[in-house]
Write a structure and sequence with these properties.
single chain, mainly alpha, two-stranded antiparallel ribbon, 65% helix
Length: 359
Amino acid sequence: MGRKYDIIVTSIPTSLSSLQKSWEDKAPLSKSLLLVPSALSILLALLFQHYQNFFVYNLQAIKNDLQIWRLICGRIICLDLKDTFCSSLLIYFFRIFERRYGSRKFASFLLGSWILSALFDLIIVEAMQYSFGITASNLPSGFLGPVFALFVPFYCSIPRVQVTQILGQFSITNKTLIYILGLQLLTSSTYIWVVATSGLIAGMCYTNSVLKVHQVLYIPRWMAKLFSWTLEPIFSSSEPTNEVRIGMGATVDIQRQQRMELLDRQLMLSQFAHMRRQRQRQGGRINWNRFFLHIRQRRNANARNVRQSEQEVAAPPLEVSEEQVARLMEMGFSRVDALEALRASNNDLNVATNFLLQH
């Protein structure tokens, strides 16, 4: 089995692999948010401590003394190094959304959640003071509202894949580490739960299609082009020259499973490119069932025979979730391509997105 897959991989075009790597490594906005605020936070903590007062998120000064500038300065740079570390790791993990939706849409989400979370901070603090007599003058500083807001699309759109189990009962998934980091950040200070709550509410409001907030708070196209010219040459990674090791799991079984999944993905991408070239030469539409036939047969070889596989190919098209079609259309793909990709991938949004982005 291993020799068979090695032969298959050697036949995959190198241009397809290069295209996939170049797409995966470009996330200039996430890298700028990871490096610049972290560097400024470290400089303020170590060298310029006498300037930290300008970056304190003081709501009483904003409300009573009309120091509106604190809504900006107090919500950009973390004054606590532990908050800096946790938020930087979360931004690093959440860069998947910039890769999936594009820098402009990702920046629009951050801007909208940043503005909305500031409004909800004021509302929650006023509600606390009015209802319980609790005065929260200072809230944790930093770019924390949008970080907590990113947990909303992370929970809704990233699939949960089990990695292993502890004691045979507690599942460890690909999302466990992210939630642990979020809980660690949530316990860093007294009133950070206010920032977390406002961030989560802001994320839900921005992603809600009924409220239409994304049509009001967004980055204009000209501004996106301007930042693309300035930030992308600085923070965009070049194409890696060395191959990344495939096995990253903690056990041999996990590494084998990851390798098989990667080989399947590369094989599907290669065959899709071949079918796309045939369609361009001959016209017509791609038979996606032919494209995925051998993969389904291999996965179901122990449970189904060849005759059942042929009947499966001739079966009616799979019903596609309209919500997933809408998500693909929001990314700029046509409805026809979105339907074909989702039917071919058995309603797997990630696989369908990868195919459509690569081609």
